[in-house]
């Protein structure tokens, strides 16, 4: 059975070619900027791996033998191809032509996402946009299936991951406008006595955060209705089947319900807010991450926040900041 040859080491191949071109190991070492012993060792390793000598060492200067001439004929295209691959990788990474894989939680993807895509479409940048839940996005970033992630919780505990705070939003109580008809005032305590709490599912980060906050407020409503998304949740709220605890961005995601709902402020505090973070690996996509941070804050300040204030005047001023 014929022995399988190991792959050729490109550095050793460069040393071999340099010896052939210059006529000596000393001159080859000078050409490549290494020591003569490094050239000698590289050639020896190449001969050992290929199981044959490559030079006629009886001649002065050493000249390639039959096997050496065959290798020399093939070496040029191999080295040129390797250099081309290296150049293309470098050009792509420096010019920003590699597609960026961006993952976002659903409420961000549905609200800020379109503006982000619109801005990127006017540049040479390519982008692939994913949406999902924070735990899945965090794992995808850790597994290098994503380059950048926008999440509502940081759970990676990885020093290589940069965490940039994006913005914060307050939890608010959401109720059908018709439930407030004819009432001068209604606060969340009264609302809790009159209606059951419609929840986000506990498998989502927002569901877990709302549950902690509700317990903190003393809201102990029986678990009846739970949803992954804001749309079905607000459909039940609009139908006066219960009230919900949600956030401005989630309400803007399901903004076709804004004419049917009203919001009531909830007590402020650490548990009463949801924070967004942009995550990326240190030293990778730094410039584009900064672009996303700037664009996100611009979209919120100039577009989403004013529109929410018009549609829901009861929204606290610091509900989205």
Automatic annotation (TrEMBL):
CDD domains: PBP2_LTTR_substrate
Segments forming domain HTH lysR-type: 8-65
GO cellular component: cytosol
Classification via InterPro entries: HTH-type_LysR_regulators, LysR_HTH_N, LysR_subst-bd, WH-like_DNA-bd_sf, WH_DNA-bd_sf
Gene Ontology terms for molecular function: DNA binding; DNA-binding transcription factor activity
Keywords, alphabetical: DNA-binding, Transcription, Transcription regulation
Superkingdom in the source lineage: Bacteria
Similarity-based family: Belongs to the LysR transcriptional regulatory family.
Descriptive protein name: LysR family transcriptional regulator
Native species: Trinickia violacea
Lineage, highest ranks first: Bacteria, Pseudomonadati, Pseudomonadota, Betaproteobacteria, Burkholderiales
């Amino acid at each position: 059975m014929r022995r399988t040859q190991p792959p050729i080491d490109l550095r050793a191949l460069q040393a071999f070619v340099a010896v052939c071109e210059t006529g000596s190991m000393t001159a080859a070492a000078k050409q490549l900027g290494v020591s003569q012993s490094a050239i000698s060792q590289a050639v020896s390793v190449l001969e050992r791996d290929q199981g044959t000598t490559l030079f006629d060492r009886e001649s002065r200067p050493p000249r390639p033998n039959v096997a050496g001439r065959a290798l020399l004929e093939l070496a040029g295209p191999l080295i040129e191809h390797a250099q081309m691959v290296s150049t293309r990788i470098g050009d792509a990474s420096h010019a920003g032509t590699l597609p960026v894989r961006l993952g976002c939680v659903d409420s961000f993807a549905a609200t800020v996402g379109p503006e982000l895509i619109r801005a990127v479409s006017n540049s040479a940048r390519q982008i692939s946009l994913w949406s999902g839940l924070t735990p899945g996005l965090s794992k995808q970033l850790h597994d290098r299936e994503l380059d950048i992630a926008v999440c509502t919780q940081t759970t990676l505990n990885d020093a290589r991951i940069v965490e940039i705070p994006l913005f914060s939003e307050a939890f608010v109580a959401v109720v059908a406008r018709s439930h407030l008809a004819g009432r001068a005032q209604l606060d969340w305590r009264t609302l809790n006595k009159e209606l059951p709490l419609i929840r986000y599912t506990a498998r989502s980060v927002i569901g877990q955060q709302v549950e902690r906050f509700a317990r903190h407020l003393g809201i102990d409503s029986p678990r009846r209705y739970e949803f992954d998304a804001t749309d079905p949740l607000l459909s039940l709220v609009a139908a006066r089947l219960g009230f919900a605890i949600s956030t401005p961005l989630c309400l803007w995601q399901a903004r076709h319900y804004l004419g049917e709902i009203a919001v009531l402020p909830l007590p402020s505090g650490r548990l009463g807010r949801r924070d967004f973070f942009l995550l990326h690996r240190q030293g990778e996509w730094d410039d584009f991450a900064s672009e996303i941070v700037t664009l996100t804050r611009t979209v919120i300040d100039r577009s989403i926040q004013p529109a929410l204030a018009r549609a829901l005047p009861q929204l606290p001023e610091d509900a989205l900041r």
